[in-house]
Amino acid sequence: MDSVGVAAAAPDAGPGPAWQSKCPWGAPSTTSISCSLADVMSEQLAKELQLEEENAAFPEVVAAAEGPFITGENTDTSSDLMLAQMLQMEFDREYDAQLRREEKKINGDSKVSISFENYRKVHPYDSDSSEDEVDWQDTRHDPYRADKPTTTPRRGFIGKGKDITTKHDEVVCGRKNTARMENFAPEFQVGDGIGMDLKLSNQVFNALKQHAYSEERRSARLHEKKEHSTAEKAVDPKTRLLLYKMVNSGMLETITGCISTGKESVVFHAYGGNSATEDKVIPPECAIKVFKTTLNEFKNRDKYIKDDYRFKDRFSKLNPRKIIRMWAEKEMHNLTRMQNAGIPCPQVVILKKHVLVMSFIGQDQVPAPKLKDVTLSSEDMKKAYYQILNMMQQLYRECSLVHADLSEYNMLWHDGKVWLIDVSQSVEPTHPHGLEFLFRDCRNVSQFFQKGGVAEALNERELFNAVSGLNITADNEVDFQAEIEALEKMNEDHVQNHGKKLSTFSSDGDPPIYDE
User: Fold this and answer.
1) Residue 135 CB partners (closer than 8 Å, separation 6+)
2) What phi and psi, each to the nearest 5 degrees, are found at residue 515?
3) What whole-number distance in Å separates Cα of residue 239 and Cα of residue 425?
4) Binning pLDDT at 50, 70 and 90, where does residue 112 land?
5) How far apart are CA 200 and CA 117, in angstroms?
6) In the predicted model, what is the mean pLDDT of the chain?
7) Bias category Basic and acidic residues: which stretches (predicted)?
8) Residue 253, H or E segment
9) Which of 250, 401, 402, 426 is least surrounded by Cβ atoms within 10 Å, i.e. has the fewest?
10) Are strands 417-420 and 411-414 parallel, antiparallel or unpaired?
11) Strand, coil or helix: 359
12) Which residues contact 465 (CB under 8 A, 6 or more apart)?
């Protein structure tokens, strides 16, 4: 039997084992559909076959593409404008989807979330929006904001019988205190106590309230100190503006940096400019003394200025801020007096509010050393002593001034001679405490030069008589100071009884001094 006959007889065989139902040499049961050459070359058939392959390979993409947006059944795709709008809408959808993914990535599980809703490209005809996505900006209820506790009625209680709740209930008061924390300053971090149903007792709430109030006042003080004060090696914005104006006007060429700091001022070094005035020649190097505008250092220093006849009338009429400007003005006028008398001191260039520009005592940005820091020979030490004695006499008799803070810290050694600085606290001998300040200066000078090995140095009482011209004969220091106080009292009574109106800085004549 041939193979063809076996294949034909196999379907007619009766029931038998499963392996006998199919013959490996049998013909296939499905027959291919024959088609003509015209059908194979048809473009419609090719598109259908391509669409079937795309549906089998990318079912989701095809499902999204089957909508009315992509297909051209109900849209006129022959218009370029319509094609541009369709492409723009598709780009906007992808952009919005990217923003939603960014929101989800950034927010995570945080209670405080951010939203890019304002940056989305939402079109009015775009109906492809997620129903489960909620725009919290369009809702009146914030899911992350807990409901505020309900207020108790006017009668003061809620409920009846055993279920009555008064306004003094611990839970109600605790929730109210938690809600009141929202009234604290924004800088005071209170956390999310409402969301956690936190209940604060009155004691804890009052402590937090007091602490928040203290922190608010402290931050205000720090802000005021930063805006209105001059710190060490730094200046506030107003002072910086004054310095900028000096540089821009050509008065100063450049400001190099800070060279000294003190209790009441900061001194900067600067190079002088070329804009010289008719009566003032700007030196090549200048020292800028910026008085600190904080009042902490001036609380105990008002005694140097309030009893000075030159400022007595103005002192009571000014606020504390302007008193500091008066302090700078006082140093300027004292330096002018000393310069007219020929005493070695810085030359005043200009005064702008609390900024005083003077000539620089030193060379090449290096300030002259203080007398306490320099090592002098015995001859130079003796020379410096007699020079200071002469300057103290000139200061008292010709300038009618008492330094009031004279020591080795306020005397510089430059070019083989002593220079006096820091005369902002200098007063006139008619000051109620002028003679006391002079005696203190004499004590500082005498002790320094006696320790320095100057045998000719007078003691403080002899130096006081030599400078002031008074002849106070007292055996001990206590009696000596008692006589000084008596002279100050008599001098003050003399000025008050005569009621003489002394002129201000326009006249540098000698004020009346009591002399035996």
Assistant:
1) 117
2) -140, 135
3) 22
4) confident
5) 37
6) 76
7) 137-148
8) strand 252-261
9) 250
10) antiparallel
11) strand
12) 471, 472
Answer for the pair 414, 370: CB distance below 8 angstroms, yes or no: no
Model's pTM, two decimal places?
Answer: 0.54
405 has catalytic annotation: yes
Query: What is the three-state SS of 323-349?
Result: HHHHHHHHHHHHHHHHHHCCCCCCCEE
Res 195: pLDDT: 67
CA 470, CA 475: separation in Å to the nearest integer? Answer: 15
* Ramachandran sector of residue 268 (left: φ over 0; alpha: ψ -120 to 50; beta: rest): beta
Segment holding 480, helix H or strand E: helix 477-498
Domains of the chain: 163-226 (no CATH), 234-367 (3.30.200.20), 369-500 (1.10.510.10)
Query: What pLDDT, on a 0 to 100 scale, did the predictor assign at position 166?
Result: 76
Q: Quick one: tokens of 237? A: 């914005």
Q: Which residues contact 348 (CB under 8 A, 6 or more apart)?
A: 332, 335, 336, 339, 356, 357, 358
Which residues make beta-bridge pairs with 78?
A: none
Handedness of CA 51, 57, 58, 63 (dihedral sign): positive
User: Who contacts 475 (Cβ-Cβ below 8 Å, separation ≥6)?
Assistant: none
- Each residue of 257-277: pLDDT tens digit? 889 888 788 899 999 887 766
Q: Mean pLDDT, to the nearest integer, of 270-291?
A: 83
Between residues 62 and 417, the one the model is more confident about: 417
Token pair 């549906």 in the structure block, residue = 55
Q: Which of 298, 405, 272 is nearest to 354 (CA)?
A: 298
Q: Bridge-partner residues for 246, per DSSP?
A: none
Strand partners, 372: none
Q: How far apart, in whole angstroms, are the C-alpha atoms of residue 151 and residue 244? A: 59
Q: Give Cα separations from 88 to 14, 61, 85, 98 (angstroms).
A: 70, 19, 5, 15
* Catalytic hit among 236, 307, 405, 422: 405
d(CA 307, CA 432): 7
Measured distance CA(416)–CA(112) in Å, rounded? 72
